[in-house]
Design a protein that fits this description.
Strand order of the largest sheet: 1-2
Family: Belongs to the bZIP family. CNC subfamily.
CATH superfamily of the domain at 449-567: Transcription factor, Skn-1-like, DNA-binding domain
Low-confidence stretches: 1-48, 65-119, 121-449, 596-602
Largest sheet: 2 strands, antiparallel
Protein name: Nfe2 like bZIP transcription factor 2a
Radius of gyration: 42 Å
Number of helices: 30
Structural class: mainly alpha
CATH architecture of the domain at 449-567: Orthogonal Bundle
GO molecular function, one term: DNA-binding transcription factor activity, RNA polymerase II-specific
Mean pLDDT: 48
CATH topology of the domain at 449-567: Transcription Factor Skn-1, Chain P
InterPro entries: bZIP, bZIP_Maf, NFE2-like, TF_DNA-bd_sf
Shape: elongated
Distance between the termini: 116 Å
Strand content: under 5%
Pfam family, one: bZIP_Maf
Number of strands: 2
Helix content: over 70%
Length: about 600
DNA sequence: TTTCGATGTCATGTT
DNA sequence: CCAACATGACATCGA
């Protein structure tokens, strides 16, 4: 993905943005910015000593407070010096501070991360560099790629370089080297972006998250970057990349982002102390990391995630504005999708909606609408997500409509957008083409689970489905009274509550049924065991009985054989038998009718 | 294509 | 009478 996209990129600004993003990513991944700044500073100092650039020194001194910015500025200056930049230092601060700062950042990023690497590269490709320098800054970019072979190739190299950063600490001999570094850095960053698996995500997140704060910077960066490195950026980043990036950004950044960017930019410029600098980035980074965490996890494929990341970073105000439209679209779709509360919403509705919206809305935005749709589908699956999403969605839609409220809402929307859209984008980009059965299954399952949630979203019901379903009647009624809902919404809420309760009831019922079946089976087993036991007992009793009878019979015969009549003759068993009375006495009773029947007591 | 299990939903009865 | 619950029956989906 990345490889393909990279060639496509032709905008220096985009490259610059990518570089910046990469830098941030690197920072996130690797050490803290301060560390980087230090290294950069040291490097810069060395360079300065070697070159003894007055401008650089001044910048460094002045920006000591703004170490990060200063370092960047120095680097920029270096690059600028190398190129045509001597004057820019003052200009940057004054005329286009925004631009300068961004550029500085990018440079720093490059320097920090890949400075040593750049040095090495310079050494290796020194001849090339010189030629490039002589020719022109613009040429350099092209040359560098050639030296590396290709943007793709660059990817691998940068990482190693990063790892080797410590050793490479060679002072930059010439401006050419600096150029090389600058040029190489973007590529490296791009490569890093592609290459970095774990790191990339962070970086990605940083970039994505950064948008809110950093976006402002981007425009600034872009100009400078373009000035310094026109070719490399283009070669490195593809337009498609940018576009995708923009889409992601739009999602992450509210419609207001453009305006915010301008506003924020001044802040950055004004106070670029180290602390402020760090604050600026870290907060974003944290946010981004959080949001991107999902991406990484979802992204699954590193390459896809990386590709997406770079794209996002380059987002520009223009793109953002377009994106806002996309968001509005998503909300619209939702509404359209769920005119009815109940019956109308079949399972089909949710999935289908997603696609239609895309077609209609996505004109400019890449997959933002898609992402939204996916959110609609997927998020519903999880109850939590649904809740969170429902609110945001409605709010976002409103804000978009209003077109002004982006600021406050963007925060919420942003967070979610940053997380979801990106994640979704990542998934889409990474998985859409080769959708994993698991993903599909998961999505479907989620969509299935979230029908009511989707419906609630469609009608912009500002209530969590769980609340609607699980709240006690009183609380539920109170909640309903608080939120003035129209007929359709009320009906839907009631249906949701009914269905939700019935769903739970059905689940419980089935559970009970299963438990009952299991209990009956268990009882059946126990009864069978008892039956066997009883049969066994009976057989034993029969045996004992037979034995007892046998013994009794033998005893009887013995006793009977010992009986003698008056004449001393034994009685005939056929004519007499022994019988015991209730009182315990035993009598010899004649079997056949015998008038003579005598009784003899024993 | 058919079958089967899981799940959601509806209709209805019960509490 | 209403709400909640229980349950049989049906539909849908995915394996």
């Amino acid at each position: 993905m990345m490889e393909i996209e990279l060639p496509k990129m032709h905008q220096s600004q985009q490259e610059m943005e990518l570089i910046d993003i990469l830098w941030r990513q690197d920072i996130d991944l690797g050490a803290g910015r301060e560390v980087f700044d230090y290294s950069h500073r040291q490097k810069e100092h060395e360079l300065q000593r070697q070159r003894q650039r007055e401008e650089e020194e001044r910048l460094q001194r002045l920006q000591e407070e703004k170490k990060a910015l200063l370092a960047q500025l120095q680097l920029d200056e270096e690059t600028g010096e190398f190129v045509p930049r001597a004057p820019p230092s003052s200009q940057q601060t004054t005329t286009p501070p925004e631009k300068v700062q961004p550029a500085v950042f990018t440079e720093e990023d490059v320097g920090t991360l890949s400075f040593d690497e750049c040095m090495q590269l310079l050494e290796e490709t020194f001849p090339l560099v010189e030629a490039i320098e002589t020719s022109a800054p613009t040429l350099d970019p092209s040359v560098l790629p050639a030296a590396h072979g290709s943007p793709v190739m660059m990817g691998p190299q940068p990482q190693p370089l990063l790892s080797a950063t410590p050793p490479p600490q060679k002072p930059l001999p010439d401006l050419e080297q600096a150029w090389m570094e600058l040029l190489s850095i973007p590529e490296l960053q791009c490569l890093n972006m592609q290459m970095g698996d774990v790191v990339e995500p962070q970086g990605y997140s940083a970039t994505s998250t950064s948008p809110v704060v950093q976006e402002p910077n981007y425009p600034f960066y872009l100009p400078k970057m373009t000035d310094v490195i026109t070719v490399p950026a283009e070669s490195v980043c593809s337009s498609g990349y940018q576009s995708s990036f923009e889409g992601a950004f739009a999602g992450a950044v509210p419609a207001d982002s453009p305006g915010q960017a301008t506003l924020e930019a001044p802040d950055l410029n004004g106070a670029f102390s180290v602390e402020s600098f760090c604050d600026m980035f870290y907060p974003d980074l944290t946010d981004t990391t959080i949001s991107h965490g999902g991406l990484l996890g979802e992204g699954g494929s590193e390459g896809t995630a990386l590709a997406e990341l770079p794209e996002e970073t380059p987002v520009k105000p223009m793109d953002i504005s377009e994106f806002t439209l996309g968001e509005g679209f998503a909300s619209k779709e939702a509404e359209v999708e769920f005119p009815d509360s109940d019956s109308g919403l079949s399972l089909d509705a949710s999935p289908n909606n997603g696609s239609p919206e895309k077609s209609t809305v996505d004109d400019s935005s890449f997959g933002y609408s898609d992402s939204d749709m996916e959110e609609m589908d997927s998020n519903p699956g999880s109850t939590k997500s649904d809740y969170t999403e429902t609110f945001p969605l409605s709010f976002v839609a409103e804000s978009i409509q209003g077109n002004s409220g982006a600021h406050s809402q963007p925060g919420s929307s942003q967070d979610q957008n940053a997380g979801h859209p990106k994640t979704e984008l990542a998934e889409d980009a990474g998985h859409d083409k080769p959708p994993f059965t698991k993903d599909k299954h998961r999505r479907r399952m989620e969509a299935r689970l979230s029908r009511d949630e989707q419906r609630a979203k469609a009608l912009q019901i500002p209530l969590a489905v769980d609340l609607i379903i699980n709240l006690p009647v009183d609380d539920f009624n109170e909640l309903m009274s608080k939120h003035q809902l129209n007929e359709a919404q009320l009906a839907l809420v009631r249906d949701i509550r009914r269905r939700g309760k019935n769903k739970v009831a059905a689940q419980n019922c089935r559970k009970r049924k299963m438990e009952s079946i299991a209990g009956l089976e268990c009882e059946l087993d126990s009864l069978r065991e008892e039956k066997e036991r009883l049969l066994q007992e009976r057989s034993e009793n029969d045996t004992n009985l037979r034995q007892a009878k046998q013994e009794l019979s033998s005893l009887y015969k013995e006793v009977f054989s010992m009986l003698r009549d008056e004449e001393g003759k034994p009685y005939s068993p056929s004519e007499y038998s022994l019988q015991q009375t209730s009182d315990g006495n035993v009598y010899l009773v004649p079997r056949v009718k015998k008038t003579t029947g005598k009784t003899r007591g024993n």
